[in-house]
Amino acid sequence: MKLPSPIIIIEIVSLIAATALLLKDKKSFWKILLLYIAIALLFESYGSFLSHRKINNLWWFNLFIFFEAGFILYGLWHCLREYINPRNIIAIGAILIYGSYGLSVIINGARQYNVLSVNVMSVLFTVYALYYYYLLL
Q1: Which of 3, 37, 67, 96 sees the fewest Cβ atoms within 10 Å?
Q2: Average pLDDT by consecutive 10-residue portion of the chain (137 residues)?
Q3: Which of 130, 108, 116, 131 is nearest to 69 (CA)?
Q4: Residue 55 in 3-state DSSP?
Q5: CA distance 34 to 31
Q6: By the 8 A CB rule, do 33 and 22 touch?
Q7: What crossing angle do the helices spanning 28-52 and 6-22 adopt, rounded to 10°?
Q8: Predicted local distance difference test score (pLDDT) of residue 1
Q9: Residues 6 or more apart from 6 whose CB is under 8 A from it?
C-alpha cells in the first residue's frame, strides 16, 4: 500500500486543526473555510488516485479552480467589506476569472491545464490583496 502524498497529509492535518480550532466560531467565513479544506482534500485525494492509475487528472483539477476562485473571492469580499462595498470589484473579478476559464476550455479543452484562469486569478487576487492592505493604512 502506498502512503498518501505529503500534500494530502498536510491537508488532513489542516482539516483536523481547523475543525478543532474553528468549530465553535460563529462567523460564516470560518465555517466555509472548513468546507473549502474538506473539498480541497477530496479533490487532491481523487486527483492522486487518478494519477496513480495513469489517468489524466487535469480536468479534475481544472474543475477545482471554480471552487478555489469562489472561496478566495468570498474571503476577499469578507475582508474588504469592513472598509468598502466590494460587490462591484468582486463581481468584475468573478466575471474575469470565470470568463477566462470558459474561454480557455473552449480554446484548449477541459483536459489541458487551465493556465489562463490561474494567471488571471493570481494577478487579480494580488491586486485585491494589495488594495486591502492599502485600505488598512
Answers
A1: 3
A2: 81 94 88 93 92 90 93 96 96 97 93 92 97 96
A3: 116
A4: coil
A5: 5
A6: yes
A7: 160
A8: 56
A9: none
